[in-house]
Amino acid sequence: MAAEALLEVEGVVKRFGGIHAVDGASFTVDAGSVTALIGPNGAGKTTLFNVVTGFDPADAGSVRFDGEEVAHLGAHRIARRGMVRTFQLTRALAAMPVIDNMMLAAPDQPGERLLNVLLRPGAVRAREREITEEAMELLEVFGLREKADDYAGTLSGGQRKLLELARALMARPRMLLLDEPMAGINPTLGRRLLDHIQRLRKEEGVTFLFVEHDMEVVMNHSDRVIVMAEGRVIAAGEPHEVRADQAVVDAYLGTPA
Amino acid sequence: MTLPLELPLAFTLEAFTNVGFWSGVLVTAGIYAVVTLGLQLNVGYTGIVNFGQAGFMAVGGYTMAILVLEAGLSFWLAMPLAVLVTMAFGVLIGLPSLRLRTDYFAIVTLAMAEVVRLAAQNAQGLTGGNKGLYCNFEGVNQTCFDEAWQSVNDSILGWVEGFWPDVDPLLPLLLVVWATVVIGIVALNYIQRTPWGRVLRAVREDEDAARALGKNTLLYKLQSLAISAVLGALAGFYLALFLTTIQPDDYEPIVTFFAFGVLILGGLASYTGVAIGAVLLWTLLEGMRFVELPISEERTAALRFALVGLVLILLMAFRPQGIFGKREEMVLGR
Amino acid sequence: MEAGARAEPAPGGVDLRESAREHPVAVAFGVIGLIVLALIVAKGVHDVAQASLNGLTLGTIYALGAVGLTLVYGILRLVNFAHGDFLTFGAYMAYLVNVTWGMPLAAAIAFGMGATAALGLLSERVMWRPMRAKGAGFLQLMLMSIGLAFIIRSVIQWFWGTEIRTLDVDVTESVSFLGLRIGQTELMVVIVGIAILAAVAAVVRFTLLGKRMRALSDNLALAETAGIDTRRVILYTWLFAGALAGLAGALAGALTNLRPELGFELLLPIFAAVILGGIGNPFGALTAGLVLGVVIELSTLVVEPRWKVTFGFLALIIALVIRPQGIFGKAKAL
Questions:
Q1: Between the CA of residue C283 and those of B316, C75, C246, what are the distances in Å?
Q2: CATH architecture observed for domain C55-322
Q3: Is the pLDDT of residue B240 over 70?
């Protein structure tokens, strides 16, 4: 029984001046899976992320999410369709309180339209109450509930990572693209993050694609690994398959995990 | 024993009890407060550095006057129409330029305001060129653009004179301007506390993060600019009624720069601060006229420039959040 | 309307838009060439050539102002609104030497350059360096530069008032060649300006200092870690920027007249040249300045002369919208 492909990337090309940052990358991500995207520095992983999530227009190729072609859509439209990303340097909105960060992410907020603010204040208030409750629950799960009213800028680096993940979840994503989630956090926190990821995959069926350099995480916590080098996908498969692949070994100059 | 002291400058405190002084200061401060409320929304809450407020004032003022003088519309109809035109103009400007980097956007809006002013200066047939617009003394519509307002003004004054014989003729305008300021502050504070305002703050802080969460940031920036354009148009009307003429010289970039002075004096992200900053700055600027220094008019004008310049420099150096701003909300240019 | 997010799935085919994006200089000159051709057909070679010559004079001033401004903008990320008043300062310093002290124009211009260079260095020492140390953001610096502009303007107005003054130059004599006329002063401006521009270009291109400036412009932090003495390079940058601004101002004053707004009026077209040339790119600023001057003058063949500055600003706005990184800028993400 084959799992359904949620994300299908085909022949994506992205040029910057004369450099081909992404040079014809193709891969698929199955629904409900945890997939790792790895590769040496400069392989084009973050650029590919940017293209897939609509932050950079592709020069060629196609990106299909849940069967729909999204390559030409802007970032916010892709996010609305359920593909939410985080960033390498966490973008916790530091000058806003934690709770505002969370509430911002919730979808279907009538209060975000000026017309509704003026004409339907009741509906706006009702939804605000709903979202506040949801946000507090989620903060509780991630252990950030006491920090709800603090400015996000006062959080530690690790707490900001958790906040970013919690915030991304408020957006009810079908697929989460995490750009180096383990970077710069201590192992304990890393454990918690991974536990959350597994739980979310199991309970909510969220699909994960993350860029990672930590090979332990990649080998032991992902269903599938995609390897990029020089703008192309050179290998894709289960962790142990990929580790043994000669092309992958070469790409990393002979230093597997 | 008398001291043979001759003070080099004499300070007339008498000026500060002169009602005429205060009415002039308050009207000017009020006009600047209206236009700077829009600036606060843009800069302090959306993170877009709009240097085109003088342009919006000009579009509003000129459209209103042209509609009254050339198209023969009633003043009360011309105003809302002019507001709509200015708003549309703001959206038109914003559509291509809001996706630019912050500093490029600042320069484009400044250029846009100058294009408006230069067009007003050069399209003599339509705008009266450098002389500006006031009254039509020939042709079909022999009227002045503020005729309707003047009659309202006179009726109010007539009524007030009943119990306050020395009432300043600027009182009705002052009331209207400050009513606008107060309503503006209340309304803007209200919408800032809504989910809409929350998205705006997110756009200010990190546009990409907002986009990654599904927010159409361009739309929000456009709305912010459109509201600012409306406020600019209103300020343009009030300025026209105050000066009783509409001339290109009144919409020079210096108006926008002074508005920024008001903005940072009151403090980023504080609407009430805008009102207080405006009154403070203009009391200072106008008050200088009553310091009897043995210097010429030109030099007094030069001092005014220096004062605003110093305000800008000292505040940015030592207290960038202004009087009422919050340090945490100073996100721009980090 | 999504901002620029369009994937053209044409693997193998030659995408015209793509090649246009990769060769902006060719496209720009191609477009201008076509326009010039059209003008020649419509108005004849003589008129076009004469307008181009006039434009060269204007363009030299723009180029001189733009090169200095782009260096400061690129290396220090400072949108220096005071640059226009640097020009004014240079002009008035030249006036001091030329008219008040009665010395020859050459000495006056040299003095103007030196004095403005000193002003630039002073501003770096007193304002910009400490603010950079504080980690001031771009909006803070921009507003401070406006404050500085006001202060320079007020000093000039204090000492010289607002009356229009002129330098001791001959504005009537002209020279003809090839059937074209050019004023003696204009010719001097072009010769001196282009000579200095060529010298600066040579320094930037061929000397170690120039190489270092370019490195800082690319990436200040990286240059610091690479061991370059950034402080010295920054001081030299201000030296150049100030001297070039002073020269531009003195020449502009010689061409027209001296008034406190002299420099500020030139600031927007200078910004246009900086942006069109790609921020931080002195060669781009040089070329863009010259081209802008010529294009603005050519426009007088089609529209009435009083519209030519407006036309220039419109050109800036359109150019920014089409290609925000300028004609010569690298295709960096917005």
A1: 33, 15, 19
A2: Orthogonal Bundle (1.10)
A3: yes
